[in-house]
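Running this now, will post back.
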Amino acid sequence: MSTALPTPEDVRNAAARIAGTVVRTPLVRLGVLDGPAEIYLKLENLQPIGSFKLRGATNAIARLPAERLAQGVITASAGNMAQGVAWRARALGIPCTVVAPDTAPDTKVKAIERLGGRVIKVPFAEWWQTLERRSFPGVEATFVHAFDDLDVMAGNGTLALEILEDLPDVEAIVIPWGGGGLACGVASAARALKPGCRLYTAEATTAAPFAASFAAGAPQVVEQQASWVDGIGSRTVFPQMFARARTIIDGALTASLDDIGAAVRTLVERNRVVAEGAGACPVACALSGGAGRGKIACIVSGGNIDSGKLTALLADTRR
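Update: finished.
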């Protein structure tokens, strides 16, 4: 079981590799001036697929030799990584298969299909097994892992380079934790290049296996409650991802569904930014004061929220 992390050189090489394909997204100040900190938003919802996943997918696929590319690619994803892989496969003219859990939102499944990806829906347990074995019966293609892959993590780590260029005196970065590929990629680069920067993960309280594992010092299994925050959250963590993260993460933050919903509304009302639950979670954590004071960068990881859910959240006037 490898627990290696991408090096700064790996991340810089990835940045050169994905330049021109992936958008260098802006870092903007959150329009909340009376909050606990000076909060900035890294707007990955502005990527062509509406998610940061394009970074890791593009870098990983670019590293494949031509003979493997010709066979096509396959991934196991609930939506955003699938879109990243499908988007790049379409550009290269190669087949793309996506194994998705049967709980995947229709909005994301339709987006994958629009990009030319073939979607195979399976029960959650079978989907998780596909992530573990890195293959699917009957599909002969190169598996692109959603998070447990050095090239994927290096691609994701390019976010840290951009944040540090745009905000050199950043004091903390808050990163959504799904499978850990984003957190490990960003944190490994940030830890090497700016050792004093505080690095936090963000999860919804309804499914926060990393927070439980971080507190216990070992991988834990938690009770997972299905919710509209679909881009992050599961019952447990990959042991190798936890082993990587525990060496570079300073703290594991969580936010309630109500607080994440309030963050979605705040982003729309104050910055005209549309974020999915996973993307709004770091903002909710920062607004609660969990990341401390000073200059804090929150990675708004994606904006692929169902329009009906967004409408319902915006209509909620409890806050």
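The mean pLDDT is 94. More later if anyone needs it.
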